[in-house]
Specification:
Order of helices and strands: EEH
Number of domains: 1
Shape: flat
Strand content: 25-35%
Strand order of the largest sheet: 1-2
Radius of gyration: 11 Å
Length: 43
Amino acid sequence: MNINSYPTHIIVDSQGIKKEVIVGGRDNMNKILIEAIDKVLIK
């Protein structure tokens, strides 16, 4: 996966295809992850 920074969140679709990578921690990470997952689920 070539990850060199932590935390790193990787969103994959149902076929295992990497759709989004979010690097670093943020105060609103839960909201960011929910939005990224929702975006993948809608497509």
